[in-house]
Structure formats: C-alpha cells, structure tokens
TrEMBL record:
Pfam families: PALP
Record keyword Hydrolase present: no
Domain named Tryptophan synthase beta chain-like PALP: residues: 10-301
Record bears the keyword Transport: no
Xref: InterPro entries: Cys_Synth/Cystath_Beta-Synth, P-phosphate_BS, TrpB-like_PALP, TrpB-like_PALP_sf
Cofactor(s) needed: pyridoxal 5'-phosphate
NCBIfam families: PRK10717.1 (NF007989)
Protein's recorded name: Cysteine synthase A
Keywords: Pyridoxal phosphate
Amino acid sequence: MDIKKGFIESVGNTPLIRINSLSDETGCEILGKAEFMNPGGSVKDRAAHYIIAEAEKNGLLKPGGTVVEGTAGNTGIGITHICNAKGYKAVIIIPETQSQEKIETLRTLGAEVKLVPAVPYTNPDNYVRVSERIAKETPNAIWANQFDNLANRKAHFETTGPEIWKQTDGKVDVWIASLGTGGTYSGTALYFKEKNPKIKCIVADPHGSGIYSFIKTGTISVEGSSITEGIGQGRITKNMEGMPVDDALRIDDKECLRILNILLKKDGLFMGGSVGINVAAAYQTAKTLGPGHTIVTVLCDGGARYQSKIYNEEFLKTKGLI
C-alpha cells in the first residue's frame, strides 16, 4: 500500500509536465514542474515544511507555539496548513494589494491575518519587517523569515532538484525560474550545477524587480511594474547569495498574459501569474537555442488564486492590458 501520512508527507514528488503547445512549436522539450499539485496548492509548501521542521529540530518551535510570517500569500497558506496539521498557530502579515482569493484562503484556513500597506523593504511598515517585530513580541513564536532562512533553498536542493533530475534521467539543458525569496531557483540551480556544471541556469524577472539589472550590471535598478504577485525583488536575499546564474530575461506583463492564455486554451493548464513569467522565459530561451534542448521551469501555483486580477477583464483594463 502506498499511503501518505497526512498533509506533510504529501508535499513534493509533483509531476513534470510537458508543455505540448510550446514544445511542439519550438522543437524543444519545455517542461514544467507541477508545483500547483502540492497539497497546499503551490511550490511554497516545500519551503513552509522545511522552515517549520528546521525550527522544531533546533528547539525553536515548541508545542502550542506560533509561526509568524510576512508573505505575498502562498508561503502563508503552506505554513497555515502545516500549523494546522501540527497544532501550531499561524500569524500571517500580507500586503493589502495581494489577491483577495489568497487573503480569504488564509482566513478560511484559520490564520490570524494582518493586512499592511504595500511599501518597500526599506520602510519599517513593510510586511517582512512587521512580521519580524510581531514574532519578537509574541511568546513562544518563531519568525519563519522565508527570504533569509536558508531552510527555504535547502528544501529545493534536497527535493525539487533531485526529483527533476530523476524525472528527466539527468537530461536537463536549461533551468529557468523567477525569484521572490530566491529559494526555488537557487536551491534547484545549486543542485543542478553540482550534478552537471554545463546546465544553464537562467533567472526570469518581471518588470518592477531589480534582479534582472543586478545580474546584467551588478547594481539593483527597478524599472516599471508588474501585476504578478510573489515574484520580483529589490534586494539580494540570503537565499540568493551565491546562486549560480548564467543569464537573466525580463518578461513584461503582456507576454506573461499571452503565455497564460496559451497554457489555458491549448494545454488545459489554469496557472498563476508567475507561471506566465517562467514559461515565457522558457519559450524565449527555446527559440534562442533552437530545437533539441530540454528546458525545465516551475508551474508555481494555479490560476484560481488570481481570478479577480489576471483573469478579470475589468482589472486588466485598468492596467492597460486588454
């Protein structure tokens, strides 16, 4: 019998899906790690699991304790699921600009949700800084600190990378992913480079993020904005330090939405915004490299968490994206 013992054992071992429409068009194998099939609905279940497990192992999180985190939504959802499964309380601080679907999901799961203004990391009212303060003020609590907690990228070094390696029989030419905390991209890239240094590791970045300019010029410069959530960054987090990067691509919202529409209408995949950035970058890379390459990216989460935004014509009109 093959039975998973509860939510936590169900995290990971997601399928690797061939994006048929774009693979057939380019002659490359464009593959997406189906992280939307994790039990909490996103790639962030892996980081949440490792962060809490490390805190328990190190004696920082005790029975009846509280996990506090600042999140764009998905890490908070993963944390709350795991807290429910283990008997902890979750306190989630989230920018008020994030999709209503994610905010309501957190409340439904039983998290204590605090909405804060969407301000830069340098502002003391930034959601990450507020979560740090609340964690310090709360008895028997830990701050998950997904951006700078290396348990995040360790999760991907120990699980995501090895799973993809096994699923492809080690035949990977390119790894592409966007960065938020940097955990998914960095942990997987570090694993791939250890297995085969010839694998190209490419960062996909939306407008409104400084990572593209940092990789290209060595300085962080933010240009424009994006309707995508949970990706893009204005600083180098600890999870990004030392990450292997061979190149970076900047993807705009129109191309992101075009790719999401193709995935939905031609491949039957209803995906979140960051997936549009990732797959668009994989598609561009396939066209640049030419046929015969295997390009792997990550399908971070599903589209249901963004129906009020990226799948809403009225919202898109306000952003000039129709």
